[in-house]
Amino acid sequence: MTDTHKASGDTLERPIRDEDGAIDSALVEQVSQALLLSDLTTLRAVVADMHEADLGALLEALDTEERPRLISLLGADFDFTALTEVDDSVREEILEELSAQTVAEGVRDLDTDDAVYILEDLDDADKKEVLDRLTPAERIVLQQGLDYPEDSAGRRMQSEILAVPAFWNVGQTIDHLRQTDNLPERFFEILVADPAHHFVGSVPLDRLLRNKRPVAISTLVDEDSRAVKATDDIEDVARMFQRYNLIATPVVDDAGRLVGVITIDDIVDVIEEAADDDVKQLGGVRADEELSDPVPLIARSRFSWLFINLVTSFLAAAVMSLFEAQLSQVVALAILAPVVASQGGNAATQTMTVAVRALATQELGAWNMRRFFTREMIVGLINGVGFALITGVVAALWFGSQGLGVVIAIAMVVNLLAAAIAGVVIPVVLDRYEVDPAIASGTFVTTVTDVVGFFSFLGVAAIWLAHR
Amino acid sequence: MTDTHKASGDTLERPIRDEDGAIDSALVEQVSQALLLSDLTTLRAVVADMHEADLGALLEALDTEERPRLISLLGADFDFTALTEVDDSVREEILEELSAQTVAEGVRDLDTDDAVYILEDLDDADKKEVLDRLTPAERIVLQQGLDYPEDSAGRRMQSEILAVPAFWNVGQTIDHLRQTDNLPERFFEILVADPAHHFVGSVPLDRLLRNKRPVAISTLVDEDSRAVKATDDIEDVARMFQRYNLIATPVVDDAGRLVGVITIDDIVDVIEEAADDDVKQLGGVRADEELSDPVPLIARSRFSWLFINLVTSFLAAAVMSLFEAQLSQVVALAILAPVVASQGGNAATQTMTVAVRALATQELGAWNMRRFFTREMIVGLINGVGFALITGVVAALWFGSQGLGVVIAIAMVVNLLAAAIAGVVIPVVLDRYEVDPAIASGTFVTTVTDVVGFFSFLGVAAIWLAHR
After folding, report:
1. What is the structure's pLDDT at A37?
2. What pairing do the DSSP bridges indicate for beta strands A258-263 and A248-252?
3. pLDDT digits (tens, 9 = 90+) for A371-424
4. What is the dihedral of CA B355, B356, B362, B368, to 10 degrees?
5. Strand pairing of A189-193 and A199-204?
6. A84 touches chain B (CB under 8 A)
7. Would you call A252 an interface residue with chain B, using a CB distance cutoff of 8 Å?
8. pLDDT tens string A255-271
9. A178, A221, A331: residue with CB nearest B210
10. pLDDT the model gives residue A341
11. CA–CA distance, A191 with A266 (Å, rounded to integer)
């Protein structure tokens, strides 16, 4: 991978990242040394041309005490945007060490979305301290973003917008762009608004550039252009970006007035985070667990999840204990029961995983639910019969008992059907009741297959033993 | 969520999607009816203003036979881009039913990335039939894209590029854009190339628009502009887009000559797919399993995974069978052994999930591996001691045996430490040997915790029983 095909004038002598994409360890060492010696010349030279993403990665690679020190030493040479690129816990640690004045100076020049992202996790007193050090104009914009709910479009938008009236033409618009100083840092569309600042539509920049100066803006407005409400859920907005291949979308308030813009770079993070949350939650880990979280926090949150699982394990053990007589009579039952339960658990996890992701990506809905359920039942039946044959033969040969083979075969079919049902029904029901199926499905589903597995296997065994 | 804030001239009377984001079922019904009656007027009216994403969703919601029929009936009115928005298996089914001529007409006007995406899964004979119906110029471009390896940047790029010489100025560039007819459908940057078509740099459109006509293009080139090689892995390219907040990146061949452009809309799909693959593989499902896959395919691939798990279950059962004497002596051992194994399996899954995702997103590397491993060991120890106390007390009270409580407590600490080790080491080693850790880690990890769980619990129990 050739990250470093830089186009021109690359002034850095050493590579910033190694081939795995991690920040180069020699660079980290160099910065640590420079921090120790307060060698501002070296620090400035290293950081000068660095992209905010690399600077963020460098911060993460430094020791906890070194991070705020780097920022204080660099002063105005430190690009606060880098703080949007580090783990939440790293950012919180850093912000605690910096003075309100430093933070205020740092966020002052950022786009509002970045500034809000940095400030939102501060506690109210610290937030106020920083905001008080800004001018009223700066403060109002940030306060507006912070006032929207977490995970809303308003919280992630930048308030810097570029809007022109529909009656302008291409020439006027281009002249305006050339003469205006405080344009957004990056933009991809010209927004069109009426005099009351209501959103009318948007014109992609490439469309503006294809047309001659006298062409009216109103004729260029993209018919497909969409706006989102500031209160819309950011994951829904992300889904829309992805579906319609958007680059940017205007954000309007309840009255349809333009209040900001959301761009694809923020949305990419939302999309990856949403998928990442699903991965972690399905694995029994808090969605927002990060590599840099402190040990006690991690241990505590993982403990809670394991505790719930322990309760369900004991529930399954209680089911087993109903069959103490049979277990002590035929020890093979004790050896094979976990096989039945585990096979059901794995099959249910397969179905559940597909269901959870399809619900999250809106591929599974009322229109195809019946088809999906039927399909999973058939797959469960086919695989149930397959594993019934295999485990039946293995059990019969291993313990020299045909009866035991038949017992495990029956239990296997029953448990793999139960696995298919639980794997579909549990996530769907949780989703219906607005519980994130990724969080809770796993426990319920494996409880079902443990209980059904033990009960069917040992229950059928009890009947067999009674009639032997 | 206000998907339907359309800006202007929405001619459709019914909503396209319901509130869950699924295609409206009444709309599907209307199209089915119109297909039955070959009512071309209705079909054209419904499809006319439809976004490709909605058209793709409509196709998926139709029955298998209806899909190619809709395309044939609509002819040139059907936008083939919609085929890039459906599941692979749906696309394959549709393409099999269409004539080579229809497919050739359909892909002719698409951007090359979309055309390649549609053609790449055809078998070689069908592909050739379609390509033979194109003009040599059209064919060469598509063939070039198809010749790059799967999952390479070259396969996902569009060949339509817009490049200007560095000695032009803003005015010349804008005039060129106004006069050229066959510009790419959408573009976000002007590429700058030397006379031999080597990539020099790129100029974002907003930067072009901020500057007056006489300004030289060479002064506007983005110093951070990066190109990727056509042979680069697309997931690495996606990581770069995400890291540096890119919207588009030029693609060069080995000699540094411009051959195409990759845009963020394709990358968003790559990012979501990569995360989605991890979710599915961790859940024991084939990465490319789709909701519309046929049942036999699904049953077969899930069977393979369950079969591997069955083998490991039998391995664990074999460990258990070493302790038949103890199991038949104290039936409580049979009841509690699965609790120890399951608690270890869940703890290992937590650690493994975090490791797999951190490896995938390049957050975990040589530089922080030791820190991560130490952290997981401490978490494993803390939670191991916690659950040792809980299970020890429960077991002692339940079965009225302090000895049994001590046995399960020791086994719990041992197994949760084993879980932490396996949860880190197994994904990291797989990754080192270039095996995707998301696929294989789960089986290995739970095998370790099952075996260690049974062995430690029953082994300690054997010692206890021998000295009782």
Report:
1. 92
2. antiparallel
3. 999 999 999 999 999 999 999 999 999 999 999 999 999 999 999 999 999 999
4. 20
5. antiparallel
6. no
7. yes
8. 999 999 999 988 998 98
9. A178
10. 94
11. 19
What element of type H or E holds B67?
helix B66-74
Q: Do B188 and A205 touch (CB under 8 A)?
A: yes
State the CB neighbour count (10 A cutoff) for residue A13. 7
**Adjacent-strand bridge partners of A278:** none
Taking the Cβ of residue A175 and every Cβ of chain B, the question of whether any pair is shorter than 8 Å is answered with no
Helix (H/G/I), strand (E/B), else coil: A116: helix
Q: Of the candidates A287, A292, A215, A334, which has an alpha carbon nearest to the alpha carbon of residue A436?
A: A287
Per the document, the length of chain A is: 468
What number is the average pLDDT over the span A225-248?
91
Cα–Cα distances (Å) from B212 to A174, A277, B163, B174, B201, in that order, read 9, 46, 20, 11, 20
A146: enclosing H helix or E strand: helix A136-147
Mean pLDDT of A103-130: 91
What's the gap between Cα B420 and its chain centre?
Answer: 27
Mean pLDDT of A358-364: 85
Q: Enumerate domains of chain A plus CATH numbers.
A: 25-149 (1.25.60.10), 163-282 (3.10.580.10), 295-466 (1.10.357.20)
Averaged pLDDT for residues A79-86: 92
Distance from CA of B333 to the nearest CA of A (A): 9
SS3 B24: coil
HSE-CB of A417 using CA atoms within 13 angstroms: 10
Q: Output the CA torsion sign for B144, B150, B152, B155.
A: positive
Interior angle at CA A129, CA A123 and CA A132, nearest 5: 135
CA-based nearest residue in chain B for residue A56:
B243
Q: What is the pLDDT of residues B363-390, one digit of tens each?
A: 888 878 999 999 999 999 999 999 999 9
One-character DSSP codes across A391-437: HHHHHHHHHT-HHHHHHHHHHHHHHHHHHHHHHHHHHHHHHHTT--H
Query: In this structure, what are the phi and psi dihedrals at residue B330, rounded to the nearest 5 degrees?
Result: -125, 100
Alpha-helical segments (H) within B196-294 = 205-210, 234-244, 264-282
A152-156 mean pLDDT? 94
State how far the Cα of B278 lies from the Cα of B387, in Å rounded to an integer: 30
Residue B389's φ and ψ, nearest 5 degrees, are -65, -50
Q: Tell me whether strands B248-252 and B228-229 are parallel, antiparallel or unpaired.
A: parallel
Helices (H), B109-201: 112-119, 124-132, 136-147, 153-156, 170-179
Bridge partners (DSSP) of residue B262 are B249
Edge-to-edge order in the sheet of strand B248-252: B228-229, B248-252, B258-263
Question: A321 and B305 in contact by Cβ < 8 A?
Answer: no
Q: What tokens appear for B29 in the block?
A: 């019904």
* pLDDT at res. A414: 97
C-alpha–C-alpha distance, residues A204 and A27, integer Å = 40
In angstroms, rounded to a whole number, what is the distance separating the alpha carbons of residues B275 and A20?
A: 18
Indicate yes or no: CB of A331 within 8 angstroms of CB of B324.
Answer: yes
**Helix, strand, coil percent content, chain A, rounded in steps of 5:** 65, 10, 25
d(CA B410, CA B402): 13
Judge contact between A178 and A252, C-beta under 8 A: no
Rounded to an integer, what distance in angstroms lies between the CA atom of residue B280 and that of residue A29?
39
Q: Is the predicted pLDDT of residue A6 greater than 50, yes or no?
A: no
